[in-house]
Design a protein that fits this description.
The complex is a heterodimer of chains A (about 500) and B (about 50). Chain A is built from 18 helices and 5 strands. In chain A, the strands form 2 sheets. Chain A has a two-stranded antiparallel sheet with strand order 1-2. With about 50 residues, chain B is mainly α. The chains are: A mainly alpha (about 500), B mainly alpha (about 50). Chains A and B meet through strand 5, helix 13, helix 15, helix 16 and helix 17 of A and helix 3, helix 4 and strand 1 of B. Strand 5 of chain A pairs antiparallel with strand 1 of chain B, so a sheet runs across the interface.
């Protein structure tokens, strides 16, 4: 049995993984029946069978007409490629000419080894040729041009620039902007495999791909269905309709988990802690809800509002609980409920990494609210790029305004976290994160005080104060406070710190 | 103040100075920038009450 399709289906299944929608977490059941919750290994692999008929497919998200327009412009790419070929061929010719002069400095065996094509050299020849290869790599082409070659090089450079700038940036009739360099905007979705290609799904002994216990078909977790439930998937053979059936089952208005899990997550975002504090586990090992009736009511309201997130946010944010202050002057309340489980005050919490980025941009008046498009890579210092193995993959935008877009658009690489986000507890994007950490550590303060980005934004903030509050220094402190900390009273803070204005402002 | 302004990170920065800073006292602009940097580092800015 080929391992790759099974591993791919397993990854798609674990990408669904239950934690986001249907708690409890059923990943344990990959290797054995869940120790605490009524989920069997068979349930796990039956859910995997739902995804067995799918494979990721990248499709253009443009019309056929736009795709045709792009294809008709293929000659532009050919022109660019030819210009590039000429440029690189010339560089090679110059380097080889310089190498001919260097060859007399090496032993004849080394030269003979070097003259063999690199992919045909033996291990000994590779070693013998290594010094000449190093010399070749170190040749600085610009220092070795003849006057004629220099002129030719400039012509090739001009040809490349001309060919590159002639490539259309958008479809001429529909004005759809091509992505990157003449690529069609596309999306990766789950497509359907042909029935003849569908792999069988088996319950695996201890999760081992090589050890099959029994063959299973697609089905939903037995504990969540009754015997006469119409959503039971009866057929043995997996097919495309089962994913749709799974989606419809998950979004049934009377589903016991989906809406509760979802509103709990949103509640956690607003309050720093969910009504069920174990947001990834509503099972026996999870915590009980602190306000079960509230959870039920929010869940039903969410469904009745047609699963509208905006309505849910509005409902929560207009509540009395949300609008409470985090400050308090009642030590008795703090003694009774020190963890604020019963929401007698607001929980003070730190802005998340992306929100902090947006806020720093916003106070400087530079936040770019443009939506959509490819991810951005704000400029980073050489030290910050050290963690990137191939530095060229981090390409800052040529338009500085693009670098000031919202934090959700900043590129997230599997093996490289944007440095600011790394300091401010952005989670690993490779795994599900039920709740972000909220640390308070020295690197955060060091970043905010010393990083180029922070300083640059401070300058923009200063420029904004000059624009909005004029050149009178006495208005700058109040102005900065009003822009950056509108929820806090400057006067109260000054009194608390026993700070007074200097005479004359 | 003038010495501090001359040694400020802005002098090493590749960024273009905001146009609002032109024709202003560099020492005062440095002080204003430092004020803004201080505000960005306040708890009241980073923590939501």
């Amino acid at each position: 049995m080929p391992r790759l399709p099974l591993q791919a289906a397993d990854r798609r299944h674990r990408g669904y993984d239950g934690r986001r929608f249907s708690r409890p977490d059923h990943n344990c059941a990959r290797c054995h029946d869940h120790k605490f919750d009524p989920l069997s290994q068979k349930d796990y692999y039956q859910l995997q069978a739902v995804f067995a008929s799918s494979a990721p497919v990248t499709i253009p998200v443009v019309t056929g007409a736009t795709a045709s327009h792009r294809d008709e412009g293929y000659h532009y790419l050919i022109a660019l490629d030819e210009a590039r070929k000429g440029y690189l061929a010339m560089d090679k010719k110059v380097k080889e000419r310089v190498m001919e002069d260097h060859k007399k400095d090496f032993a004849p065996e080394a030269v003979r080894a070097y003259e063999i094509a690199p992919d045909k050299r033996t291990a000994q020849q590779i070693e013998q040729a290594a010094p000449l290869s190093r010399v070749y790599d170190s040749i600085k082409i610009e220092e070795n041009f003849t006057p004629e070659e220099k002129i030719q090089r400039e012509k090739y450079t001009e040809a490349i620039v001309k060919a590159a700038t002639r490539i259309p940036q958008k479809d001429g009739s529909h004005y759809v902007r091509f992505d990157a360099f003449f690529d069609l905007p596309s999306a990766t979705v789950l497509g359907h495999l042909e029935p003849e290609l569908l792999p069988n799904t088996y319950v695996l002994e201890r999760g081992d791909l090589e050890r099959h216990k029994m063959k299973v078909g697609p089905a939903l977790p037995a504990i969540l269905l009754s015997d006469d439930d119409p959503d039971k998937m009866e057929s043995e053979a997996p097919g495309p309709r089962y994913r749709k059936q799974l989606a419809l089952w998950l979004t049934r208005p009377d589903h016991p988990l989906t809406s509760r899990v979802f509103v709990n997550r949103v509640w956690q975002e607003h309050f720093g802690q969910g009504i069920v504090s174990t947001t990834n586990d509503f099972g026996r090992q999870g915590q009980r809800p602190s306000h079960p009736e509230l959870l039920d009511w929010l869940a039903t309201e969410f469904v009745e509002q047609n699963w509208s997130l905006k309505s849910l946010h509005r409902l929560i944010m207009l509540s009395d609980a949300y609008q409470r202050d985090s400050r308090f002057n009642s030590p008795e309340d703090a003694k009774i409920d020190p963890n604020n489980v019963y929401l007698w005050r607001m929980n003070r919490h730190r802005l998340e990494a992306e929100t902090l980025w947006d806020t720093i941009q916003a106070v400087g008046g530079t936040l770019n609210l443009k939506m959509g498009g490819r991810p951005i890579m704000p400029p980073l210092s050489t030290a910050e790029l050290t963690a990137l193995r191939i530095k060229e993959v981090w390409v800052p935008p040529s338009d500085p305004a693009e670098a000031n877009r919202r934090g959700v658009y900043i590129m997230s690489r599997r093996n490289f976290m944007f440095p600011m986000f790394d300091k401010f507890d952005r989670p690993d994007p490779a795994t599900s994160c039920p709740r972000r950490d909220m640390t308070t550590v020295a690197p955060q303060a060091l970043w905010s005080l010393n990083n180029d980005i922070a300083y640059r934004q401070a300058r923009q903030f200063a420029a904004r104060l000059l624009r909005d509050y004029g050149k009178d220094p006495s208005s700058w402190v109040n102005g900065a406070w009003q822009i950056a900390c509108p929820a806090s009273s400057l006067k109260e803070t000054q009194e608390a710190l026993n700070v007074h204005e200097a005479p004359g402002g | 103040m003038k010495r501090l302004a001359a040694e400020s990170p802005a002098k090493k920065s590749q960024d273009v100075e905001p146009k609002e800073f032109q024709n202003q006292d560099p020492a005062q602009m440095h002080a204003l920038t430092e004020l803004c940097l201080t505000v960005i580092n306040l708890n009241e800015f980073t923590y939501v009450d």
